[in-house]
Design brief:
3 domains, binds adenosine-5'-diphosphate, Helicase, Ruva Protein, domain 3, 14 helices, alpha/beta, Arc Repressor Mutant, subunit A, about 10% strand, Rossmann fold
């Protein structure tokens, strides 16, 4: 009988894989002192029995909003020891007023797990709980995902009007800057009592964040500082997004590990960058409606075979003509026995694809076949063809 020890191999790169996971929150969050202090000062009134003002937090993805808020609420819970509560809600999952309130009720009242209670009942029970003079702070992360948010915010405002003691506050978090515009003016003025911005990280900041993770998560001597700095620089150039930076770093570590190296280097970071980018592209494509995918496929096919008209103007040889892409798309529709959409819809698909960075376009100007759009693919055609065919099959 062989021993399992034979199959349990220690990683040469990782000391603790969890440290590189997107869910891991380090004890020390660099470069967020200011935001953390401000969060604490906005919650502090609750520890003195007063209702905190509502707060809206804005910042792009990966700027540390979720982890900073979680860290502060943990400290809050320790300090208040149950006399007041914060409830964290991921609105991607709990995306309706009923679900949010149910989640709140379950979090603050032990044993409250009866499904099937209607919203009015849940609302009354929460009011009773708060009515003992408690402060309840509801954190709505990715608040823009809530359907009927106006109703939810109205419910919370009304609760405060009804309560004689205690209160409900909201901390809303979003990475959509224009989300405000969709709100009813009343909701807007209630949610935006206070506002806070999380700026993107600079290259230096990302490098420090990655170094901290590398030291905690990798074996000593299993990485070069050059590789860490490259990963930080790449992510800063893309977006200043710490999640993306960590993804590149952990992918690079996996690549080094798979090729049985002792150290992760610049080369691994470069390969990781390509893979991570394709992952992101893949996610974006899979969410697209079928016609968008077919147009993208047509662009990719033509990019491989080359434009029929490229010879007419050598300076534009890497571009495709909008008209020929439309023809290719229409043929593809025929082959797949789908009815192709009008040229007008086709142009709107092109626009959407361009917004997502999947392709770029320029207007040709007069002279080249009249006035037309010139199109170029944003990623290598072979890879896109693979991704789109798979997605269309599924
Ligand atoms: N200042 C920081 N120091 C260390 N890690 C950070 C910092 N900011 C973000 N991270 C890490 O980056 C990832 C994304 O952060 P997150 O808080 O989820 O961003 P957001 O909510 O703004 O999209 C998480 O894994 C988090 O641990
Ligand atoms: Mg977040």
């Amino acid at each position: 009988m062989p021993s399992f020890d034979e199959f349990i191999t220690e990683s040469r790169i990782f000391k603790d894989r969890d440290v590189l996971s997107p869910h891991y929150i380090p004890d020390n969050l660099h470069f967020r002192d200011h935001q953390i202090r401000e969060l604490m000062s906005s919650l502090a009134p609750a520890l003195m029995g007063k209702k905190p003002r509502n707060l809206f937090i804005y910042g792009k993805t990966g700027t540390g909003k979720t982890c900073s808020v979680k860290q502060v609420t943990q400290k809050f819970e320790e300090k208040s020891a149950g006399s007041s509560r914060t409830v964290y809600i991921n609105c991607r999952i709990h995306n309706k007023p009923y679900r949010v309130m149910l989640k709140v009720a379950k979090a603050v009242m032990e044993g409250f797990d009866k499904q099937g209670y209607g919203l009015p009942h849940i609302y009354e029970r929460i009011l009773e709980w708060v009515g003992n003079g408690k402060q309840l702070i509801i954190i709505l992360d990715e608040i823009d995902m809530v359907k009927n948010l106006d109703e939810l915010l109205y419910l919370i405002t009304r609760a405060n009007d009804e309560l004689e003691a205690g209160g409900l506050s909201v901390i809303g978090i979003s990475n959509r800057l224009l989300f405000k515009e969709d709100l009813d003016p009343r909701s807007k003025s209630s949610l935006y009592e206070r506002e806070m911005v999380f700026p993107p990280y600079t290259a230096n900041q990302l490098q420090t964040i990655l170094k901290q993770r590398a030291e905690l998560g990798f074996r000593p001597n299993a990485f070069t500082s050059g590789a860490i700095n490259l990963a930080g620089a790449v992510a800063a150039q893309e977006s200043g997004d710490a999640r993306y930076a960590l993804k590149i770093l952990s992918r690079a570590a996996e690549i080094a590990e798979e090729s049985e190296k002792d150290k992760l280097t610049d080369e691994d970071v470069k390969s990781a960058r390509e893979l991570v980018e394709l992952d992101i592209v893949k996610e974006a494509i899979e969410k697209l409606p079928e016609n968008h995918q077919m147009v993208l496929y047509a662009v990719a096919r033509l990019s491989l075979s080359g434009s029929k008209y490229a010879r007419l103007d050598e300076t534009k040889d890497s571009y495709l003509f909008s008209g020929e892409v439309y023809e290719e798309y229409s043929e593809l529709c025929k082959r797949l026995k789908k009815s192709s959409k009008t040229a007008r819809s086709y142009r709107s698909y092109l626009n959407d694809l361009e917004m997502l960075g999947l392709l770029t376009s320029v207007e040709s100007g007069k002279g080249i076949r009249g006035h037309t759009k010139l199109i170029k693919l944003g990623h290598p055609p072979q890879e896109l063809i693979k991704i789109v065919s798979k997605s269309l099959e599924a």
